[in-house]
Amino acid sequence: MHQKSVKNKEINKWSIVFNQDIKGEDFYHNKLKPVFDMKIAEFNYKLFSNILATGCNMYKWGERPSQSCIYCNYDKHDGRHLLFECPSLQNIWNIVDE
Asked: What CA–CA distances, in Å, run from 40 to 36, 57, 60?
């Protein structure tokens, strides 16, 4: 039961971050389980667990003096910024998307 409530908290958090309604089972089965490339699976795990080395996390862990984006100097480099908002990284995500 505890594991289910933790999953629901994570899903609710990501629903807010991505501003979309995310369905619980779809989130875990479609996003994490069918990934066969271990680097992508590791990236997904770190992103969804909020342990990806973003500016915000590195600042929180005491590894950086600020939480700003090192690519575009936006003041809050988090998972959403990394994936969707950083203009300096959009070309990379366009290539990955192809």
From this structure: 8, 19, 24
Nearest to 25 by CA among 16, 33, 17: 33
Q: How far apart are CA 83 and CA 77, in angstroms?
A: 10
Task: Tell me the pTM.
Answer: 0.61
Q: What is the DSSP string of 35-76?
A: --SHHHHHHHHHHHTT-S--HHHHHHTTSSS--S-TTT--S-
Cα–Cα distance between 60 and 76 in angstroms, integer? 12
Q: What is the pLDDT of residues 42-58, one digit of tens each?
A: 888 888 888 999 999 99
- Closest Cα partner for 83 from 27, 17, 38? 17
